[in-house]
Design brief:
Length: 312
């Protein structure tokens, strides 16, 4: 008989590509994970993984099972949250996903809002990149989140845009920020860009690639870094220029690049910020609270593009 425990072990193995890594992630013994996957294979009537070297790769059956396993575990988590919702705002844990740069917009302020209203709760504000947060939503590990949406595959998710933040060009050379930067100038520039790990799916990079490719040009990145603070600081040193959301530029330039300036692109470009949760999910009071407070926070520093909170 199929069990939640079996599905949990299956998804961990699918994600990590080995029984050993799955066991470490779950805190189980490796033989226990292997046994649960074998039991699940007997139930579905076919192999879910094939051994390759020291790891495993999913079979076609494994690929087919994955989205259904995620839905089942997500539904189970939603059921638990619904049962616990009567007291979660008093003593429970509130967990909400946000893209990494959000810490510059609303991170500390959002947490402060929550603990001021509900001093007995424990808060987890998690996420480094919108793609990572979206995957956590799909797996049921997060109930709701705020992400940048150009990189988002919305299948199975409900997406509600709430704000947009203009992308701006940052440079220590006054001549480069004297007028809006054209597509041709952008394509020719030596850039330092954050989100090196997530370069393929990062929202800002997708917007820029689409803009430059539409002009028949190719973007050029000279320096890859992980965090936006390093990108802005290097731009301030004059080693390369960068493109970041206006909110990040306003927050970071005075501290990290006081001699740099920023200017719009021509044509102007934006990151769109949205509230996201699983389609059809019944949101707990904790999730609804975080959505309300996060939306209000983000709309004070970025341009609102949706109805005011509470109008729906």
């Amino acid at each position: 008989m199929l069990s939640l425990h079996q599905l949990t072990c299956f998804l961990a193995t699918y994600e990590h590509g080995s029984f050993t890594a799955a066991a470490e992630d779950l805190g189980y013994a490796q033989p226990s994970v292997s046994e649960q996957v074998r039991a699940l294979e007997k139930t579905v009537g076919g192999a879910l993984f094939t051994r390759v070297g020291r790891g495993v790769v999913p079979t076609q059956t494994g690929h087919l099972l994955r989205p259904h396993a995620e839905k089942v575990l997500g539904a189970a988590d939603e059921a638990l949250r619904a049962v616990r919702s009567s007291h979660v705002l008093e003593t429970g844990t509130i967990r909400f996903g946000m893209f990494g740069i959000a810490r510059l917009y609303a991170g500390a302020g959002l947490v402060s809002d929550v603990v001021t209203r509900h001093p007995g709760v424990r808060v987890e504000l998690v996420g480094q990149n919108s793609s990572e947060v979206t995957e956590e939503l799909r797996r049921g590990r997060l109930e709701a989140a705020m992400v940048a949406v150009p990189a988002l595959d919305s299948e199975g998710l409900e997406v509600r845009p709430v704000a947009r933040d203009e992308l701006v060009y940052v440079s220590a050379d006054p001549a480069r920020t004297a007028a809006p930067v054209t597509v041709e100038q952008l394509a020719a520039a030596d850039l330092v860009m954050p989100e090196a790990t997530w370069r393929r799916s990062d929202s800002t990079r997708i917007v820029l690639r689409q803009l430059i490719h539409a002009a028949g040009l190719t973007p050029r990145t000279r320096i890859e870094v992980e965090d936006v603070e390093t990108a802005v600081e290097l731009a301030g040193m004059g080693h390369a220029d960068t493109v970041v959301p206006r909110g990040a530029a306003r927050a970071l330039l005075p501290r990290l690049a006081p001699d740099a300036a920023y200017v719009s692109l021509a044509p102007r470009q934006w990151d769109t910020l949205a509230i996201v949760h699983r389609a059809g999910a019944t949101l707990s009071p904790a999730a609804r609270l975080m959505i309300e407070l996060a939306t209000r926070r983000i709309q004070t520093v970025a341009e609102p593009i949706d109805e005011p909170v509470g109008s729906r």
